[in-house]
Amino acid sequence: MTRTIVITGASDGIGAAAARQLHAAGERVVVVGRHPDKTRAVAESIGAPWHLADFADLDQVRELASVLTERYARIDVLANNAGGIFGERTLTRDGFEQTFQVNHLAGFLLTNLLLERLIESRASVIQTSSVAAQRFSRFDIDDLQGERRYTASTAYGNAKLENILFTKELARRFGDRGLSAVAFHPGAIASGFAGSSRGLWRWMYTNPLASRLLTPTEVGGARLGWLALGTPGVDWRSGGYNAKNRPARTTPLADDPLLARRLWEQSADMVALPTR
Ligand SMILES: NC(=O)c1ccc[n+]([C@@H]2O[C@H](COP(=O)([O-])OP(=O)(O)OC[C@H]3O[C@@H](n4cnc5c(N)ncnc54)[C@H](OP(=O)(O)O)[C@@H]3O)[C@@H](O)[C@H]2O)c1
In a 3-state reduction of DSSP, which class is residue 26? Predict the structure, then answer.
C-alpha cells in the first residue's frame, strides 16, 4: 500500500532529500516548506503536492493543519523536520523564542491538530532531533524561552532535547491508540541549516573546506526515509531515539517522564490546546 508521508522542512536539505528518495520508492510525499519558490521547485521535481507555512507564525501552522486534514484522508507518516539554529535571541510574532518555536512548538501544535487523522491512520510521527540535545542543552523547564540563559547553541540543544521529550510523551499518551513516534539524529549533514547562525556553527556549515567533513545530504535524507518506511516495534522502538538507523544514547534528561509531561503541559498551554 502506498503511504502518504508529510515532511516539513522539505524545501531543502534533509527533508528535500528524503522527499525525493521516498517518492522514488513509490510513496506519496507531501512537501511542506516555508519559502514558496524553493518548496514548489522540490515538489514539482517529483510531481508532489506542496503546502507552505512559516513556523515562526503559529496561525500559519493552524492553517496548514486544517488544509492537510481537508486534503488527505490518511497521513501515514508525519515527519516534523523543519528547524535550524539561529543567532541573537529573537521573539516570534507569537511572543516565543524563535529556536524553541520553530524546532519544537510549531511541530508540537501541528501534530496535535492532526492527531485524530494520525491516530486513524496508525501513523508514525518522526522528529528530526540532533546530537546537540546531548552536547549543547542546558535545559530548564522553567525557562523555556531562554529569558534567564540564552546562547544560540543552548537554545538549539534545548529545542532538540524537546523533540525527544515530545516523542516520548506522544508515544506514552497515544501508543495504545496505535500512534508511534521516534526521534533521530540525522548525522552532521551538509545543509544550509546553520546559515542564519553565527560563529563556529555558521563557519562549519558554510565554509567549503569545513563542510567537506560533513555527511552528504542524501545520507541524512535516507535516515529519515528509513524511519518513515520502517515498522514501529520491528525496525525501531516507539518512544525511542535513533542515530545511524539504530538506538542511540542521548542526555539522561530525555529519560525523565516528569520533564516530558511538564513540557507537554506547558507547550499545550502556550498554544491553547484543549486538555486531553
Ligand atoms: N544539518 C545537520 O547537520 C543537522 C544535524 C542534526 C539535526 N538537524 C536538523 O535537521 C532538520 C533539517 O535541517 P537541514 O540540515 O536539512 O537544514 P536546511 O537545509 O536548512 O533545511 C531546514 C528546513 O527547515 C525549514 N525551516 C527553517 N525555518 C523555518 C520556519 N521558520 N518555518 C518553516 N520552515 C522552516 C527550511 O525552510 P526554508 O527552505 O524556507 O529555509 C528548510 O526546509 C532541522 O530540524 C535541523 O535542526 C540538522
Answer: coil
Atom of ligand 1 nearest to the CA of 39: 39
Say if CB 12 and CB 221 are below 8 A apart: no
Q: Pick from 84, 64, 108: which is nearest to 267 by CA?
A: 108
Q: How far is the CA of 224 from the centre of ligand 1 (A)?
A: 13
Residue 28 falls inside a structural domain:
yes
Closest C-alpha to 122, from 7, 261, 233, 10:
233
Q: What is the pLDDT of residues 55-101, one digit of tens each?
A: 999 999 999 999 999 999 999 999 999 999 999 999 999 999 999 99
Residue span of the structural domain in which 264 resides:
4-270
In SS3 terms, 153-212 reads as HHHHHHHHHHHHHHHHHHHHHHHHHCCEEEEEECCCECCCCCCCCCHHHHHHHHCCCHHH
275 within some domain: no
Whether 9 lines ligand 1, by a CB cut-off of 6 Å, is yes
